[in-house]
Amino acid sequence: MNTETLIPEELKKFTPAQLKAAAKAQEDKKEEDRAAYKDLSAEAAAKAIFKLSIASEVLSNAKTEVFQYFENILKMKADLYGVKAKQQSHTFSFDGGEITIGYRINDGWDDTVNEGIAKVNNFIASLSKDTETAALVNVVFSLLKKDAKGNLKGSRVLELQKLTKEFDNEEFTDGVEIIAAAYKPRRSVWFIDAALIAEDGTKTPIPLAISSVDFSQGYKFEFYNEQLPEDATA
Question: Which Pfam families match (predicted)?
Fold first, then answer.
């Protein structure tokens, strides 16, 4: 008996003791169901972690083997051509695909970068605002714009150095040199990019991250609605 669905006329048919017992039975059933839900969700999470741990190990082993393949190839290349190229990545292709291995760089700066930026900004602020200088000012400000993490882009230092010839100003040049000297790039991750290439030249990347891999054919996760909530961001 579900006391929550009974109308007043039906409730009158039962004694207070019966209603109390029925309510307690309902509460006990609810607690049992919730406990069963927690057990099932914990079991599913454990299975998922086990499966993903295996997938991670497979990816790790595959990554290691791929780099081992090309380590020997790169050594042979260096011996044959008499030079060990200092580059972040190497691309190898064959009839039907290509693969790129290498490492990514994270921009890094020591604390003196702010002094360099301040000197550059001081000089820029002193410029007259005619049409010619206004364009250069906008270029410099765009190069000094920081990203979401509050860092400059290392690739912009070279552009700033080129502009020192345009301004030919001691303070500006010194500020740019301080910024350049403060640049401390750090190697982050070793990566592999691979793609299949069709006869018409179309490239189809091979997904190597779990977020880019599609579900198995025929499966669709349909728990969530197609429509995004109003506060969802793109």
Answer: DUF3164
- Shared-domain flag, residues 72 and 134: no
Report which of residues 5 and 50 the model is more confident about. Answer: 50
125/148 Cα distance (integer angstroms): 24
> What six digits make up the tokens of 185?
């790039």
Instruction: Report the distance separating Cα 182 and Cα 48, nearest Å.
Output: 45
Rounded to an integer, what distance in angstroms lies between the CA atom of residue 84 and that of residue 105? 19
| Average per-residue pLDDT for the chain | 82
Domain count, the chain: 2
Name the 3-class secondary structure at 73. Answer: helix
**Measured distance CA(78)–CA(216) in Å, rounded:** 42
Q: Say if 75 falls within a structural domain.
A: yes
Which distant-in-sequence residues (6+ apart) come within 8 Å of 165 by Cβ? none
DSSP helix/strand/coil, 173: helix
Task: Read off the tokens for 207.
Answer: 């997904």
pLDDT: which is higher, 46 or 127: 46
Gap between the Cα atoms of 90 and 15, Å rounded: 83
In a domain, 101, yes or no: no
